[in-house]
């Protein structure tokens, strides 16, 4: 039997081509998504267990306080060395590791910086707590010694023993490369490279000479809960002590949840692509069974049992599924390599690199094969029912009858789906409702095919007899018409859904953010400072009108960790968007005798202090001061940078006369594009300094959404392409079945052109049904979704219906019909009339 | 019957001149038609008979413009159809020829009336209502016009096919084994009707058959063997035709 199957596949390769392409596309897409999202996710969430596996107690800044909804990354409190010394003497503590990171870069011998996004890290000497291991050379032990990760070393041709120039917050440093590090199996802990330095160097280069740590991890023999308790006693305000498990769970959650959501969404698209592929596979096999009816009947006549016939078809499905899936996995990898290559040329790279995991390969092959075998089930049953007598009959035509159950199931599903989407708050139920509506449409598609054909009949009859016959043909086998149209329907539905729902959410998000105006540029030094020389360099750039430098320090206000800053507020108000909710910034002044003032931000959470009330501000060394509130500021992008604003005198008495770390830049209107490069170039010299374009968040959100919508739409269009193959198959089958009929029409006077037009009209009708169905379904589901989202989140997302895109989709639908008919139409008149009509 | 007497003075509705049809080349060549010259006069019912492979179907198909000759000429009236392109041929068939097949070959999605009117619909012309009524009455389909082919018996379907061939008043009707799939009683009805179309309406019919009884309804029977006309018989009867056919087997 297997021999028969294999020879059948070999001899009918042409027929199977469409199926193979369908499987390949689906599996290829699935694999590509898997590879890319694996990389993205691992780069986003890191490997928590590998990085923090041996941490028993973690001392971290109070994340709930610092992670307020500000776009900027306020400098968090750091764990000071004296505290660490206390921690290490606690009973049961066996080792500790301080984390300190900062931006670094290398200066090449040609004067150009490289590895500009690398992270400088304090080398942890505790073996158990150090996530990095040495691949080559030694650990950095004395000052000036560094180790870099395997990836960076490979990319830039660095070897142990190289003398290099490291750009740090503290300036240029001559260093010697003594070791190559790796993180578990992967090259680097940080996506853009890790440079490990000694503790002393870390303090000097990454933290302006302060002996502090971003967080501190302990390893001990005591019960972690006891350790947490005793550690809590020695810690100043603004810090949190967690057990290793709590800490790891937090890390996973904060970094991984977005990635997991993304992965699920991407996977869902991939599976949908496979499902659309499934429709096509089903159609193709139906065609193959119909074409081979005679052959199957002969087999039945000479003694093949129904079971054997069924099995032979299923085996064909298995062989095809395996071959197609294998090719698909290869195609998927080639696709990601191409994508990576394209990105590399344009200077980017896939986040996290390419993960060629075995699970992707096996998953792709298994899913592809399973879906293929499943799609063959029904055609195989049809094949098994082949009677020997059918060897002598004309090709059989499916019955046009539709069972009553189908109708009932449809109505019930629609009712339940709409109810679920409109009446519940539970997001999962809303999702299930949407799926129910979609399922109802797919199940009820034969009715839609019949109804739609009736609807289009007057239009098509204008084309004359061929139009009339085209309509009749499409309803002759409504189930088949429906299956074909469904493949397209799903594709169009998804495209519409993404277009409508995506555009609506994008417009909403961009609208929200663009309400927040801001300075033209915000220049921030992370860990370093904006010294006078730099500020004056910045100010002398052509078309830069004004630079307002601010000093910023991490503090806690009434126990909540945040940042506070000080500077010339009247200048600030000119260049930045500082909106005063109540009170007046002008009152921000100190009479010197400890009666300091502060302007706080209304974060919308908790109680905002009243004007005239007081708040307690604590600096990182634990010094308290009571300040009078003189103004409440609206949260804007710029106030997100400054944090609360304290009068200069009080600020200096609190933290000392420190250099500014934050500057707002105002440029001549219209010169934003021109000044951008100059400002960026100036900032690039100093690894600690980043220059951000004003309202960058708004632009970023718009761009990201646009990109996502475009990318997803592009991917979905592939499912539309698969649907085209389905229409070609169905039309070919239809033509095959009606060979005699077509022959007769030509004999009694229908010209070949009109016969071809008839085939084309039928194909257009099918694709119109699929396109219109998908459009309407997409619109309805996205509107329902938006209603649910609005009710759930109390947001007011107004539906933005991209009419132009929808019209384009509709026109594309008609074009698809014409395109898909090209081949079948030619085939319909290729046969000589006499052969067409001779009884076979 | 007087058909034989004045055949020479009648115009030919269709003709074949030195018609040759060859399949294959060289030694493998098969001559389906080996130089046939024949006239099919107007208003006459001609039957073509011959054993399998004699070329009778090929002759009809080539004259009817369904197939092309290798050499020689086939004419419908004065039109040399070998000079027509595919579309012109289709239009010629639509406007001037009628066809009846062994398999009824109706369009399943069209009603009996729509099937009968199909050639006219394709040509974009209207039927002569009285002529349509007359034909429908003669074939006895008055009550069946609204039915789909699947709701008709085999005989009824063939009557629809005959009506479809006759309603446009073609110059000539070609019938390929029109009674081959019918029981003998229905077959007789169809043949009688074809005969009447010739006698009463002056229709021209060329019929290919292997049934001597069917051939006996014709004015003249042509006998083909090995691609050539070997005999013809005026005023045939079933017995005479059967006798003649037996010679081929001997």
Please give a handful of descriptors for the protein shown.
heterodimer; A: 840 residues; alpha+beta; 4 domains; 9-stranded mixed β-sheet; 6-stranded mixed β-barrel; 16% strand; elongated; B: alpha/beta; Rossmann fold; 6-stranded mixed β-sheet; 25% strand; disordered N terminus
Helix and strand arrangement:
The complex is a heterodimer of chains A (840) and B (250).
Chain A lengths: L1 H10 L1 H33 L2 H5 L4 E5 L1 H4 L12 E2 H8 L4 E7 L1 E3 L1 E3 L5 E2 L4 E4 L10 E5 L7 E5 H7 L6 E6 L2 E12 L11 E4 L1 H8 L5 E2 L1 E6 L3 H11 L4 E5 H48 L1 H9 L4 H40 L12 H27 L19 H20 L3 H17 L1 H17 L3 H12 L1 H37 L6 E5 L6 H8 L4 E14 L2 E7 L2 H7 L4 E4 L12 E6 L12 E5 L5 E10 L3 H6 L1 E3 L1 H8 L6 E6 L4 H13 L4 E5 L2 H42 L1 H9 L4 H42 L9 H28 L2 H5 L3
Parallel strand pairs in A: 7-12, 9-11, 18-23, 20-22
Antiparallel strand pairs in A: 1-14, 1-15, 2-13, 3-14, 4-7, 5-6, 5-10, 8-11, 9-12, 10-11, 16-24, 16-25, 17-18, 17-21, 17-24, 19-22, 20-23, 21-22
Chain B lengths: L11 E12 L6 E12 L3 E5 L6 H8 L7 E6 L2 E2 L5 H11 E4 L11 H12 L5 H11 L14 H13 L5 E5 L7 H18 L3 E4 L3 H4 L4 E6 L2 E7 L3 H12 L1
Helix pairs in contact in B: 3-5, 4-5, 5-6
Kindly describe this structure.
The complex is a heterodimer of chains A (840) and B (250). Chain A contains 27 helices and 25 strands. Chain A is an alpha+beta fold. In chain A, α23 packs parallel to α26 (803-830) and α25 (752-793) runs antiparallel to α26. The longest helix of chain A has 48 residues, at 244-291. Chain A starts with a helix and ends with a helix. Residues 65-74 of chain A have low confidence and may be disordered. Chain B is globular and about 55 Å long.
Give a brief outline of the structure.
The complex is a heterodimer of chains A (840) and B (250). Chain A is α+β, with helices and mostly antiparallel strands and 840 residues long.
């Amino acid at each position: 039997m297997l021999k028969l199957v294999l020879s059948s596949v070999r001899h009918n390769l042409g027929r199977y081509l469409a199926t193979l392409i369908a499987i390949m596309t689906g599996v290829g897409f699935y694999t590509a998504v898997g590879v890319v999202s694996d990389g993205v996710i691992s780069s986003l969430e890191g490997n928590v267990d590998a990085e923090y596996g041996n941490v028993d107690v973690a001392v971290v800044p109070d994340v709930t306080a610092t992670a307020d909804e500000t776009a900027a990354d306020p400098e968090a409190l750091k764990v000071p060395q004296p505290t660490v010394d206390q921690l290490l003497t606690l009973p049961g503590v066996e080792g500790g590791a301080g984390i300190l990171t900062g931006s670094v870069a290398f200066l090449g011998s040609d004067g150009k910086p490289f590895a500009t996004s690398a992270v400088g890290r304090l080398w942890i000497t505790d073996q158990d707590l150090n996530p990095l291991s040495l691949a080559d050379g030694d650990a950095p032990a004395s000052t000036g010694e560094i180790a870099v990760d395997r990836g960076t070393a490979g990319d830039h041709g660095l070897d142990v023993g190289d003398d290099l120039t490291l750009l740090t917050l503290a300036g240029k440093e001559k260093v010697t490369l003594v070791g190559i590090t790796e993180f578990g199996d992967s090259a680097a802990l940080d996506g853009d490279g890790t440079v490990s330095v000694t503790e002393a160097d870390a303090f000097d280069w990454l933290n302006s000479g302060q002996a502090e740590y971003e967080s501190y991890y302990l390893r001990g023999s005591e019960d972690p809960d006891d350790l947490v308790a005793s550690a809590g006693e020695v810690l100043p305000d603004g810090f949190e002590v967690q057990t290793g498990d709590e800490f790891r769970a937090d890390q996973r959650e904060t970094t991984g949840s977005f990635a997991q959501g993304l992965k699920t969404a991407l996977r869902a698209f991939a599976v949908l692509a496979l499902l659309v592929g499934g429709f096509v596979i089903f159609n193709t096999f139906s065609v193959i069974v119909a074409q081979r009816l005679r052959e199957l009947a002969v087999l039945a006549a000479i003694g093949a049992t129904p079971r054997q016939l069924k099995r032979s078809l299923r085996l064909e499905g298995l062989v095809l599924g395996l071959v197609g899936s294998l090719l698909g996995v290869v195609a998927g990898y080639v696709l990601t390599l191409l994508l990576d290559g394209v990105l590399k040329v344009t200077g980017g790279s896939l986040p996290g690199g390419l993960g060629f995991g075995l699970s992707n390969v096996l998953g792709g092959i298994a899913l592809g094969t399973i879906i293929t075998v499943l799609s063959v089930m029904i055609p195989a049953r049809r094949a098994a029912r082949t009677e020997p007598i059918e060897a002598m009959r004309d090709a059989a035509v499916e019955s046009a009858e539709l069972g009553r159950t189908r109708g009932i199931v449809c109505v019930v599903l629609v009712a339940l789906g709409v109810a679920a989407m409109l009446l519940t708050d539970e997001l999962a139920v809303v999702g299930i409702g949407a799926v129910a509506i979609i399922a109802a449409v797919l199940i009820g598609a034969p009715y839609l095919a019949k109804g739609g054909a009736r609807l289009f009949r007057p239009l098509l009859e204008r084309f004359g007899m061929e139009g009339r016959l085209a309509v009749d043909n499409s309803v002759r086998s409504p189930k088949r018409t429906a299956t074909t149209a469904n493949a397209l329907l799903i594709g169009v539905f998804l495209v519409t859904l993404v277009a409508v729902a995506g555009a609506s959410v994008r417009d909403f998000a961009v609208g929200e953010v663009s309400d927040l105006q801001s300075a033209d540029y915000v220049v921030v030094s992370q860990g370093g400072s904006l010294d006078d020389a730099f500020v004056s360099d910045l100010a002398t750039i052509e078309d830069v009108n004004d630079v307002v430098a601010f000093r910023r320090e991490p503090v806690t206000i009434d126990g909540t960790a945040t940042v506070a800053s000080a500077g010339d507020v009247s200048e600030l108000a000119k260049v930045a968007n500082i909106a005063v909710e109540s009170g007046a910034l002008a009152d921000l002044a100190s009479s010197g005798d400890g009666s300091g003032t502060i302007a706080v931000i209304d974060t919308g959470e908790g109680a905002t202090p009243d004007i005239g009330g007081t708040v307690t501000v604590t600096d990182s060394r634990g010094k308290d001061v009571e300040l009078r509130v003189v103004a409440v500021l609206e949260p804007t992008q710029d106030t997100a940078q400054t944090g609360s604003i304290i009068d200069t005198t009080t600020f200096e008495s609190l933290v000392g006369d420190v250099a500014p770390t934050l500057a707002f830049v105002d440029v001549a209107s219209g010169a934003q594009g021109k000044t951008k490069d100059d400002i960026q170039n100036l900032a690039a010299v100093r690894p600690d300094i980043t220059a951000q374009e004003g309202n960058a968040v708004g632009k970023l959100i718009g761009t990201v959404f646009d990109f996502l919508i475009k990318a997803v739409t592009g991917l979905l269009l592939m499912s539309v392409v698969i649907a085209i193959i389905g229409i070609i198959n169905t039309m070919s089958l239809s033509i095959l079945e009606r060979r005699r009929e077509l022959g007769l029409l030509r004999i009694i006077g229908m010209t070949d052109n009109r016969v071809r037009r008839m085939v084309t009209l039928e194909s257009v009708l099918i694709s119109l049904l699929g396109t219109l169905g998908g459009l309407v379904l997409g619109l309805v589901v996205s509107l329902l979704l938006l209603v649910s989202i609005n009710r759930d989140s109390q947001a007011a997302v107004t539906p933005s219906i991209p009419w132009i895109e929808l019209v384009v989709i509709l026109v594309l639908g008609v074009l698809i019909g014409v395109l898909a008919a090209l081949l079948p139409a030619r085939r319909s008149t290729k046969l000589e009339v006499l052969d067409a009509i001779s009884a076979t | 019957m007087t058909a034989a007497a004045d055949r020479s003075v009648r115009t030919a509705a269709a003709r074949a001149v030195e018609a040759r049809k060859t399949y294959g080349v060289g030694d493998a060549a098969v001559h389906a038609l080996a130089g046939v010259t024949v006239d099919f006069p107007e208003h006459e019912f001609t039957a073509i008979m011959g054993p399998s492979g004699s070329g009778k179907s090929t002759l009809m198909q080539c004259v009817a413009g369904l197939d092309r000759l290798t050499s020689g000429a086939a004419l419908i009236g004065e039109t040399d159809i070998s000079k027509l392109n595919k579309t012109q041929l289709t239009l010629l068939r639509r406007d001037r020829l009628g066809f009846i097949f062994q398999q009824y070959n109706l369009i399943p999605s069209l009603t009996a009336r729509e099937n009968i009117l199909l050639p006219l619909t394709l040509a974009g012309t209207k039927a002569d209502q009285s002529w349509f009524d007359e034909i429908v009455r003669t074939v006895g389909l008055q009550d069946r016009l609204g039915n789909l082919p699947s709701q008709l018996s085999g005989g009824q379907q063939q009557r629809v096919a005959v009506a479809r061939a006759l309603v446009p008043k073609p110059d000539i009707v070609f019938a390929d084994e029109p009674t081959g799939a019918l029981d003998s009683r229905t077959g007789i009805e169809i043949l009688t009707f074809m005969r009447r179309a010739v006698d009463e309406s002056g229709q021209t019919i060329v019929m290919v058959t292997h049934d001597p009884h069917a051939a006996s309804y014709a004015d003249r029977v042509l006998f083909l063997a090995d691609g050539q006309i070997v005999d013809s018989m005026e005023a045939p009867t079933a017995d005479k035709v059967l006798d003649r056919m037996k010679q081929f087997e001997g």
